[in-house]
DNA sequence: TAGGGTTTT
C-alpha cells in the first residue's frame, strides 16, 4: 500500500461500511499502518499526560488512527467514574475533537474513520465545518469523535471557553501554523489550565504586570471555579505535527511528553542545479523536457509561484512537446533520408467528453503528454484534469501547480517533482498597515514537503532549480501566519472570548507589539473599542459576525442607510473568492485570448458605473432571477439527493420559462459557480445571525430593509462602512494632461486614469484591473475600497464611487 | 492603465 496523507484517505475505494466482514477488512488495512504498532504506547502517554506531542511523517495514519485508539482504549472514560451522575447525563466531556486546517480534510477523514468503525458519518463519528455539520443531523451529542476545522472549534470556544463537551482535543497539522490553529493553541491551553487537577506551571506569570493582565488572571480563576463546579474532567491535548519542531511545542507545553512515529514514504533522490538559474520558467521547461526524454515513466509535478507563470509554462510546454517530437522524428528520418523538412502538423487533440467547449486548452494531450494546470482560482471543472487518471493514448502527465499541491490536494502517480523554489507569500507591514503578496523563496520545510510529493507511489526524484548552497541559506520554516497578517479580526475574536489584554494572550508565537497596536487602533476607529480599550456594545455585535471587522462594520452601518438587504449581498459576494472567472493564459493560443474576450463581454452586462458594490449586487440579483439553485450547504447524502431531485424537478417546471440551471448559468456568464454558491451560503448565515433575537446571541435587526433603486443610500452606506478606506483621485493636471496627449497620439481614446491617494495614510494606490471602475472615463473623484494589496504595484480592490463630501457626514470625527 | 499563493469562521 502506498502511503497516503490524511486528506485523501476517503478517496481510496473502500468496502461499504457496517458488515463485520468489511470491518475485518478495514482492520487488516489499519494494522499495516506504521502508527498501529504504537497504539498502546500512545494511549498510555495520553492517559498519563495532559499534553502529548505526536510527530509523525506523511503516511503514518496518525489522523485516522490515533482518535480511534483513544476512543477504543477507553481508559480516558474511566475518569468519569469520579464525576456525578448529573453531569454524566449531560454527557459532558465525552467527546474527542480532531481539528483540521481545511474543510475538505475534516470531511474526508471523518468519512474514512466512520467507514473503518462501521458506521455512518454523523453517528459515532462526525464532521463539523461551516455550512456542513453532520453531528447535528441525528440529534446532538451522538458523535464521540468529531473532525472539525480549527476555525469551527475556535467559534465554539467563544461561547464555551472551557470546551466542556470535550475530553480530548487533537490539534492536527500543527506544523502548518495556520492563523486559526495558532490561536487555538492558546485557547486550548487556557481551557486545560482551568480544568487541570494538578498545579499548572505558568511560565508567563512573571513577565506581565498590566491591569488587563490582572483581569485576565481573575477570569482564569473564575474559569477554574466553574470547571470545578461542573466537575469537568481534565482536558487532554494531543498536538500532531509532521515535522520536527518539537522544541517550539515543548517549550509551550513544558509538561508534555513526545513520541515519534515513522512515516511511510518512498525514497526521493534530490538533485540541485550547479548554478543559480536566471529564469526558472525556462529552467523548468528544459528540466521537464529532459525528464520526458530520458525517463521511462512517471508523472511530473512542477511547483511555480503563481497562475501567470503556470499558464506561461503550460503554453511553452505544449509548444515544445509538439515541436520536439516533430523535430526528433525528422532528425531520425533525416539520418536516413537526408531530408531537412520539419513537418508542421496539428498535434493538439482534445480529450473527448472531458473538456467543456469553453476551456479545452487545459485538458489537451500533446504527443501523448497531458499538460495540466492547477491553482485555486481555477474553477473545479478545470482542475479535474490534474486529478483524473490518464486517458487512453496518454503516457505521461505534467502538472503545473502553485503550492495548492503542497498540502491542500493530493495528486496520484507523481514520480518527479520540479521545484522552482519560489512561492507567493503574503506579508503585512504593520507600520503602513499594508498587505503584500510577492514572490519569495520557499523555506526548507516547504522544499522538503514539495519533494515528498514525488515519493508517494514509488521511489522518486526531485529537481530543485537552484544550487545546494542556495538551499542552505533558506529559512528552516515559513513564518507562522499570525506574524504575517492584519490582526484586527484576531484581536476582536480574543476580546469577544473575554480576554481583556490580547497582548498578554499566551501565543505560541507572539505577534509584534506594533501589529497588535495597529489592530487596536483600527478597532478603536471603528468604535469597537472604547478609550480604555474595552470592547464596546458595538464591538460585541461585531464579534458575533464571522467577518473581518471592516466588513462587520460595513454590515452594521447598513440599517442606518436603509440598505441592509443590499449590503448583506455585497459583503457575501466580496468576501467570497473571485466571483468572476477570467480564463488566463499567455495569450499565445488563439483559444485562450478569444476566451478572455468572451468572458469580458459576458461580465460587461453586470458592470455598474458606480463600482464593485453595485456590480456584485447585479450579479447576485441576475443569478437569483435567471438561475435555479438549491443550496446543498447542509444535510447528509439523502438530503443532498432530495435537493438534487428538487432541482431537476424545478428545472422541468421552468423549462418553459427562461430559468436555467445554476451550473449552466455560471458557465455561460463566466462566473465561478463554487464562489457564488458559497457567497449565497454566507449571505444566509449572516442574515440568520442579524435577524436572530439579541437574547439568543443574535443582532435583532431587520435584514429585509432595502434601499430599492435609491443608489445614493447604498453609496452612503458604503461610505459610512468603509470610511477608513477612502481614496481620492490624484489630479496632477500636468501629468494627466501629458499622458492624455500621449494616448491621443497613439490613437487611444480611453484616457481614464485610476490613480488615487488614500485619505488616511496618504498612500498612492491604483485601481486594480479587476475593479469594475477600471477603465471608466473619467474615473470617479473619490472611492471607498475593501482591500489594499501590494503586488507588482499598490492596488485597491472592491472600489466603489462615493462623493467626497459624504465622508464628513458619515464620519465627522475623521473628516471635516 | 494591466492582473491575487493558500485557508477559515
From TrEMBL:
A GO molecular function held by the record: ATP binding
Keyword terms: ATP-binding, Helicase, Hydrolase, Nucleotide-binding
Record's GO cellular component terms: nucleolus
Primary enzyme class: hydrolase
Region (Disordered): 1-27, 634-656
Reactions listed under catalytic activity: ATP + H2O = ADP + phosphate + H(+)
SUPFAM superfamilies documented for this protein: P-loop containing nucleoside triphosphate hydrolases (SSF52540)
GO annotation, biological process: positive regulation of transcription by RNA polymerase I
UniProt-listed InterPro entries: DEAD-box_helicase_OB_fold, DEAD/DEAH_box_helicase_dom, HA2_WH, Helicase-assoc_dom, Helicase_ATP-bd, Helicase_C-like, P-loop_NTPase
Annotated Pfam families: DEAD, HA2_C, Helicase_C, OB_NTP_bind, WHD_HA2
Biased composition (Basic residues): 635-644
Limits of the Helicase ATP-binding domain: 43-262
EC number: 3.6.4.13
The UniProt record lists the keyword Zinc: no
Residue intervals of the Helicase C-terminal domain: 287-498
CDD domains to which the protein is assigned, alphabetical: SF2_C_RHA (cd18791)
Domain of life assignment: Eukaryota
PANTHER family in the cross-refs: ATP-DEPENDENT RNA HELICASE, ATP-DEPENDENT RNA HELICASE DHX33
Full protein name: RNA helicase
Organism: Chaetoceros tenuissimus
Amino acid at each position: 500500500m502506498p502511503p497516503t496523507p490524511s486528506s485523501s484517505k476517503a478517496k481510496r475505494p473502500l468496502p461499504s461500511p457496517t458488515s463485520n466482514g468489511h470491518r475485518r477488512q478495514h482492520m487488516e488495512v489499519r494494522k499495516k499502518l506504521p502508527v498501529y504498532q504504537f497504539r498502546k504506547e500512545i494511549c498510555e502517554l495520553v492517559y498519563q499526560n495532559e499534553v502529548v506531542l505526536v510527530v509523525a511523517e506523511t503516511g503514518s495514519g496518525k489522523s485516522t488512527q490515533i482518535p480511534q485508539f483513544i476512543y477504543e482504549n477507553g481508559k480516558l472514560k474511566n475518569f468519569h467514574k469520579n464525576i456525578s451522575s448529573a453531569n454524566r447525563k449531560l454527557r459532558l466531556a465525552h467527546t474527542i475533537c480532531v481539528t483540521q486546517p481545511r474543510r475538505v480534510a475534516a470531511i474526508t477523514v471523518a468519512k474514512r474513520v466512520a467507514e473503518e468503525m462501521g458506521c455512518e458519518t454523523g453517528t459515532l463519528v462526525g464532521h463539523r465545518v461551516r455550512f456542513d455539520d453532520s453531528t447535528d443531523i441525528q440529534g446532538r451529542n451522538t458523535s464521540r469523535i468529531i473532525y472539525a476545522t480549527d476555525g469551527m472549534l475556535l467559534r465554539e470556544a467563544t461561547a464555551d471557553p472551557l470546551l466542556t463537551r470535550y475530553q480530548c482535543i487533537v490539534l492536527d497539522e500543527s506544523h502548518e501554523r495556520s492563523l486559526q490553529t495558532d490561536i487555538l493553541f492558546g485557547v486550548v491551553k487556557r481551557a486545560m489550565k482551568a480544568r487541570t487537577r494538578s498545579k499548572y506551571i505558568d511560565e508567563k506569570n512573571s513577565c506581565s504586570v498590566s491591569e488587563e493582565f490582572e483581569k485576565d488572571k481573575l477570569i482564569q480563576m473564575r474559569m477554574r471555579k466553574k470547571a470545578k463546579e461542573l466537575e469537568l474532567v481534565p482536558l487532554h491535548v494531543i498536538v500532531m505535527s509532521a515535522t520536527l519542531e518539537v522544541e517550539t511545542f515543548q517549550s509551550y507545553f513544558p509538561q508534555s511528553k513526545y513520541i515519534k512515529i515513522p512515516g511511510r514514504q518512498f525514497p526521493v533522490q534530490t538533485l540541485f542545479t550547479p548554478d543559480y538559474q536566471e529564469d526558472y520558467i525556462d529552467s523548468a521547461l528544459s528540466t521537464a523536457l529532459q525528464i520526458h526524454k530520458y525517463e521511462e515513466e512517471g508523472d511530473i509535478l512542477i511547483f511555480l509561484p503563481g497562475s501567470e507563470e503556470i499558464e506561461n509554462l503550460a503554453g511553452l510546454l505544449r509548444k515544445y512537446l509538439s515541436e520536439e517530437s516533430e523535430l526528433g522524428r525528422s532528425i531520425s528520418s533525416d539520418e536516413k533520408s537526408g531530408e531537412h523538412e520539419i513537418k508542421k502538423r496539428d498535434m493538439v487533440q482534445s480529450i473527448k467528453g472531458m473538456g467543456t467547449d469553453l476551456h479545452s486548452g487545459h485538458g489537451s494531450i500533446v504527443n501523448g503528454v497531458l499538460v495540466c494546470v492547477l491553482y485555486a482560482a481555477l474553477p473545479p471543472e478545470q482542475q479535474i484534469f490534474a486529478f483524473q487518471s490518464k486517458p487512453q493514448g496518454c503516457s505521461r502527465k505534467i502538472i503545473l501547480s502553485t503550492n495548492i499541491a503542497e498540502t491542500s490536494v493530493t495528486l496520484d502517480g507523481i514520480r518527479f517533482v520540479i521545484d522552482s523554489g519560489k512561492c507567493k507569500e503574503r506579508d503585512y507591514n504593520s507600520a503602513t498597515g499594508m498587505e503584500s503578496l510577492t514572490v519569495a523563496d520557499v523555506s526548507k520545510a516547504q522544499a522538503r514537503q514539495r519533494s515528498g510529493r514525488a515519493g508517494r507511489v514509488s521511489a522518486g526524484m526531485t529537481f530543485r532549480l537552484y544550487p545546494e548552497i542556495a538551499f542552505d541559506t533558506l529559512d528552516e520554516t515559513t513564518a507562522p501566519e499570525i506574524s504575517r497578517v492584519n490582526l484586527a479580526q484576531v484581536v476582536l475574536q480574543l476580546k469577544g472570548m473575554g480576554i481583556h489584554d490580547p497582548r498578554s494572550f499566551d501565543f505560541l508565537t507572539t505577534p509584534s507589539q506594533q501589529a497588535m497596536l495597529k489592530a487596536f487602533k483600527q478597532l478603536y476607529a471603528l468604535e469597537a473599542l472604547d478609550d480604555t480599550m474595552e470592547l464596546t456594545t458595538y464591538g460585541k455585535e461585531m464579534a458575533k459576525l464571522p467577518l473581518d471587522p471592516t466588513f462587520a462594520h460595513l454590515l452594521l452601518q447598513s440599517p442606518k442607510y436603509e440598505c441592509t438587504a443590499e449590503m448583506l449581498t455585497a459583503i457575501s459576494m466580496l468576501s467570497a473568492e473571485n466571483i468572476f472567472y477570467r480564463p488566463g493564459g499567455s495569450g499565445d493560443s488563439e483559444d485562450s485570448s478569444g476566451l478572455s474576450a468572451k468572458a469580458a463581454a459576458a461580465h460587461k452586462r453586470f458592470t455598474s458605473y458606480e463600482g464593485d458594490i453595485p456590480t456584485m449586487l447585479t450579479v447576485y440579483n441576475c443569478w437569483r432571477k435567471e438561475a435555479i439553485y438549491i443550496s446543498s450547504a447542509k444535510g447528509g447524502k439523502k438530503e443532498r439527493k432530495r435537493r438534487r431531485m428538487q432541482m431537476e424537478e424545478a428545472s422541468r417546471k421552468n423549462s418553459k420559462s427562461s430559468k436555467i440551471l445554476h451550473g449552466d448559468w455560471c458557465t455561460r456568464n463566466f462566473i465561478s459557480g463554487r464562489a457564488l454558491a458559497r457567497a449565497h451560503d454566507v449571505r444566509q448565515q449572516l442574515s440568520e445571525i442579524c435577524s436572530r433575537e439579541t437574547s439568543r446571541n443574535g443582532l435583532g435587526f431587520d435584514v429585509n430593509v432595502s434601499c430599492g433603486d435609491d443608489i445614493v443610500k447604498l453609496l452612503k452606506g458604503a461610505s459610512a462602512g468603509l470610511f477608513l478606506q477612502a481614496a481620492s483621485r490624484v489630479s496632477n493636471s500636468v501629468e494627466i494632461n501629458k499622458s492624455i496627449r500621449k494616448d491621443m497620439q497613439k490613437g487611444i481614446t480611453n484616457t481614464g486614469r485610476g490613480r488615487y491617494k488614500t485619505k488616511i495614510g496618504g498612500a498612492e494606490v491604483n485601481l486594480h484591473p479587476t475593479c469594475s471602475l477600471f477603465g471608466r472615463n473619467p474615473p470617479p473623484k473619490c472611492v471607498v475600497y475593501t482591500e489594499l494589496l501590494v503586488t507588482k504595484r499598490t492596488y485597491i480592490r472592491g472600489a466603489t464611487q462615493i462623493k467626497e463630501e459624504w465622508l464628513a457626514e458619515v464620519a465627522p470625527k475623521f473628516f471635516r
